[in-house]
Amino acid sequence: MIRLRGRMRAGTARVLREAVEGVLAAGSTSLVLDLSEVVADDELGLWVVPAVAGEAHDAGVAFTVVAPHRSLRSRLRRLGGRPFDLADTWP
């Protein structure tokens, strides 16, 4: 699981990408991205989520995003890109 806190924006997206690359390199079969404590400041920062979901998909890794805030879930759905599971709570 990767748990982010604070603000997600274009300038901080690199941190998420690097964390996902580390999990994928470790050979995990699933990855949960917890955005429970994240404030998304701009759409560019959010675009990293479908991008890393695509990387996970290409590696055969199940990718789930936990986003309890309805507005954030809605914004993520509008982005499109590779499909990923979107949950409002951690299963």
**Main β sheet profile:** 4 strands, parallel
Terminal CA distance reads: 12 Å
CATH superfamily: STAS domain
* Percent in helix: 40-55%
The strand count comes to 4
Mean pLDDT across all amino acids: 90
Architecture per CATH nomenclature, i.e. the level-2 architecture: 2-Layer Sandwich
Compressed to H and E, one letter per element, the order equals: EHEHHEHE
Q: Enumerate the strands of the largest sheet in spatial order, edge to edge or round the barrel.
A: 1-2-3-4
Q: Tell me, briefly, the overall form.
A: globular
Total count of domains? 1
Secondary-structure content class: alpha/beta
Q: Spans with pLDDT under 50 lasting ≥5 residues? A: none
What is the highest CATH level, the class?
Answer: Alpha Beta
Rg result: 12 Å
Textual characterization of the structure:
The chain is 42% helix and 29% strand. It is α/β, with parallel strands linked by helices and 91 residues long. The chain has a 4-stranded parallel sheet. The protein has a single domain (2-87), classed as STAS domain (Transcription Regulator spoIIAA). It starts with a strand and ends with a strand. It is built from 4 helices and 4 strands. Helix 1 links the parallel strand 1 (2-8) and strand 2. The chain has helices at 13-25, 43-46, 48-58, 70-79, and strands at 2-8, 30-40, 62-66, 85-87.
